[in-house]
Write a structure and sequence with these properties.
The chain has 113 residues and is of the alpha+beta class. The protein has 2 helices and 5 strands.
Length: 113
């Protein structure tokens, strides 16, 4: 009986460990200039809607969304700093994948207006 339970626990541990180890792929720290005010973007049906913010900079478009893997739950508060003309030191993670509409997610930002 113990052997039967050990395999699923081992597999789950390997999957969780690998995903946690890969969480910082695409990690970048850079200074950006905000080129226009950010926008709230929602995707999906009304019962399964997911919303985030798109932040437009001179270095491209970034996402600003809550992320449980990085323990980030302040996207709405952080979004108040992203106004046109601000210069921000950001930390972002992820990749830009155009056909999936994916952008790097901003984890932290220090903006000066």
């Amino acid at each position: 009986m113990k052997r039967v339970l050990l395999l699923p626990v081992l597999v789950a541990g390997l999957i969780l460990g690998a995903s946690y180890g890969l969480k910082n792929i695409g990690y970048v720290e850079q200074t950006v200039q905000i080129t226009r005010d950010s926008e709230r973007v929602c995707r999906g049906e009304s019962n399964n809607r997911q919303c985030s913010y798109e932040v437009y900079t001179d270095q491209g478009v970034f996402a600003n969304k809550d992320d449980i893997m990085h323990l980030k739950f302040n996207s709405s508060d952080l979004n108040a700093d992203f106004v046109k003309g601000a210069t921000c030191d950001i930390t972002a993670v992820g990749f830009r994948i155009p056909f999936l509409s994916m952008h790097k997610n901003i984890l932290t930002a220090d903006c000066k207006k």
